[in-house]
Fold:
Amino acid sequence: MTQQISDAELEIMKIIWANPEKVTLFPYILDGLAARGRPCQKNTLIVLLSRLMNKGFLRAKKVGRRNEYTALVSEAEYQTAQTRHFLDKIYEGNAKGLVSNLIAGDLLTDEEYEDLKRLLENGRGLS
Amino acid sequence: MSALWNVFLPMSLSGALLILILLTGRFFWKNRVSRQWQYYIWLAVVLRLLIPFGPEPGLLGGIRQVIDQAVSQEASFQPAQLPTDEWTGVQTPAASAGEHGESVGLPQDAGTALFNRIWLIWLAVAAGLLIRKITIYQGFLRYVRAGMTPVSDLDHLNQLSIAAEQTGVKRPVELSVNPLISSPLLLGIFHPCIVLPSEDVAANDFRYIVLHELTHCKRWDMAYKWLVQVTVCLHWFNPLVHLMGREITKACEFSCDEAVLAKTGGDHAQDYGKTLLNAMAAIGKYKETLGTATLSGNKQLLKERIDAIMKFQKKSTAVRLLTAALTLCVLTGAVFAGVYPVAAANPSSGKPVAEPPKASTPGKTNTNSKRYACLAERYYASGSLPLFQMTFSYLDEKTQNEWLDRIFADGEIAYMGAVLNLLDDDCPQIQHLAETIYQDGNIAFFSTLTNHMSDEVLETWLDRALDDWNFAFQSVLFNALDWDGEFDELKDKEEKEWYEAQKAEYQAAGVTIDGKNYYYQGKLVRIFLDVRQPDQSFYTLDINQKGVINIRVIRNAQNQITGVAYLTQAEAEELFGEEDIEDLLDEEENPLGNASMEVTIPLNVKTLPAGETVCLGEYPLSEGDRIWYELAAKTGDGMQIFFRKDEERPVYWSVENLRQGSEPLQCTADFTVGPPAKPGTYTMYLRATNGALKNVTGSLSFALSDAF
Structure:
């Protein structure tokens, strides 16, 4: 999953990921975008959703006259894929470089740094 | 298969004819008629070029016959084993495609073989061209799609959505950018996608570009364009069709510009023109724009377009009406330009169409009449008399007869007058109609008809009317003959005899006739009705708006007058229907009309005993009316004429005379109604002042003021 999506598309994905329901309906996304301060025209949303479907991020099931959207890619999957992409592109796959950069660039707060340390000591993987 | 070609050639010809008409017409309506109309009217031609069906042999059926003839003549120089019908492939059922294969094997002129195969060449070229166009388009699509990135800027996408709503495009429209293309364009028919050369466009430009492309999308211009491309491919041999293709591409952009401006309003013309110019700046990277809708094609066209945009204005109603009329013309033209008969085009119909050339003429007229009959129907329904009149002259005799009957049945006397003017005097149609009307007894229509009859015919009719004792028609016919200035003394005598007999008959019953006026008991009759027995089929009905009483002549079963009665309101209503009675009553409120006119009423009193007074009728008078009377008595020595409003009021306009020696006893006066006499209804009286009066005759005249 290396498809890149635009910011606007990501916004939509975030709304769908954040939705506790299994399927998401069109008005829900429209309201969600407005709530996030990025109001969007109906047609725009239709275009963006169809792009997401083409990229394999979404699936739409037609029920009556409305579409039920389901995410095909989870948020975690997307994040991992994006991070890997980022790692490959900037650090040539070297995760250490990324972390040291994060620390050196003061991008991590002390708290976050402690959390990470504990995580490493207790075992592998994120909870 | 060659039959297909045989349909195609005439189709191409009739199409070419229409194209020529539209191309010529363009110079007249270029800036006058809506650009959108100029664009869509081509659709009629395209459909004519694509749909091989038409009503029977059309206008070109005749031309086709001529071609066939010419070809047959040419082909008759060929050896006998090649029948002339090889060319048409339809005159003998055997001449099917399979037979062609065999006949080619025979030793014969190579040119003829080629001629037989011409449809194959045509089809091959058409298919080749179409395939080429499609591949070029696909190549172009690939080229554009390869370098295309979807626009993710929400602002632009939202603007597009708003524009889509504004133009009414329901399908979702994609928006992409491809720096390799030269000007904005629209791809795809079902999944439209607007491609911009760059995302970096001024907001205003973006709006117009998107509006323009969405308008293309909304109007299914892509489908139209492809339809035209298919037409051009099929008619590749017809240069006019190619010309049409180019013309439609142009018209498409013009009409799209117009549609955009109609949406945004004419005051945006300048901005819109600027957008076009900006889009032009980057022209010329990829030439092929076939099958796509670009914002701007080439510079010459752009100049014209900007010119048209600046001249944009909403079309007036008059122009719209004109446009509607033009559309009707072109459409009927397209439908009736026709193709070679469908039956002939279809060999499987099994019926060889071996019509001799001369048979084509009636066939053609027949179709034309059908067409004109349709038009006549339409114009009649829409009440367009001048157009109806024009069409009528093209109808054949039978149809004209039908129409005459119908117009008569509908009582459309205006139409009747108009169409009668088109017909020759005494033509069979008029004879036919006269018969109908005579049977029906409609005098009004018959008298219209008499203007279109010669004296000889009128005389035959008169003889018939005389035989039938049909007085009403007799009088109409006498009139008609009189107008023609050839006064037949015999007829005159007969008429006079009838008239005198009639007059005497009425006189006996107390009704006096003076010219067209009827009087009863000294009063002018408004409605005069005399229904003759026994079958009540003939009657005399006279309506005089100025009259004051309604009377009816009563006859017994022997048709003798037994008396005169006043018509009751109910009877009058039955006679005319309520509405007409209303009209008459309306008239009564203003009984003297509004024009200054003179009325003379004859007065006649046989005897009046000495000292007695007799009433000579009631007259509504108003201020300014001039009245003069003149009465003379044969015997008696004194008479007085006076007017009175009612019994108590003073007497007006009184004249009293005594006989002076051998001078005749008479009263004359001439006065104008005015103060102190007030307007109103006055009764005229005659009094015998000195001895009994006998045979008092004379008249009373009015000159009504136009003070109303």
About this structure: Helices of chain A lie at 7-18, 26-35, 42-54, 75-91, 95-104, 110-122. The interface with chain B takes residues 6-9, 38-44, 46-48, 50-51 of chain A (CB under 8 Å). The radius of gyration of chain A is 18 Å. Residues 75-122 of chain A form one domain.
